[in-house]
Amino acid sequence: MALHFTKDEMLVFLEKVFPQIQGTFGIDELGEELLVMRMHPREEHLRPGGTISGPSMFSLADVAAYVATMARIGREALTVTTHCSIDFMRKPEAGRALIAETRVLKLGRSLSVSDVLLFSEGITDPVAHASLTYSIPPKRS
Question: Is the pTM of this model over 0.85?
């Protein structure tokens, strides 16, 4: 499936529709099979114990699934999360970027289902796994 965005075009789109996340996320790879995004954790993303907070990890997984879906369907800013399940498996390291490897498992007319593995940069074992479903708005005639 052809993609509707390059990495740079996607970052511009994100800044337009979600200006509040500017500078938080980067895109390492945007391909037909795989999206690799990163979060640059700041003080507000940390929790006691020197780790990245669960809500921050969810945020990266959610944005990554959104980007993977948008790359395939085009500019449908009102596409929304309808389901997320996340398993936290290991403590992510606060001093490292958080990396999301995202695959769209199924893309239909009204739903997109994605799988996201989260890693601490440079560490082989994943820190979390998420499954997300997005609702795609119906085409207007």
Answer: yes
Q: Taking Cα atoms as reference points, which of 62, 66, 85, 82 lies closest to residue 131?
A: 85
pLDDT at position 48 is 84
Rounded distance, CA 139 to CA 45, Å?
37
- Packing angle, helices 7-17 and 54-73, rounded to 10: 120
DSSP string, the chain: ---S--HHHHHHHHHHH-GGGTTTEEEEEE-SS-EEEEE---GGGEETTTEE-HHHHHHHHHHHHHHHHHHHH-S-TT-EEEEEEEEE-SPPBTTS-EEEEEEEEEE-SSEEEEEEEEEETT-SS-SEEEEEEEEPPPPP-
Instruction: State pLDDT tens for residues 22-64.
Output: 889 999 999 999 999 999 988 888 888 889 999 999 999 999 9
Q: Which domains does the chain have, with CATH numbers?
A: 7-135 (3.10.129.10)
Q: Which residue has the higher pLDDT, 94 or 53?
A: 53
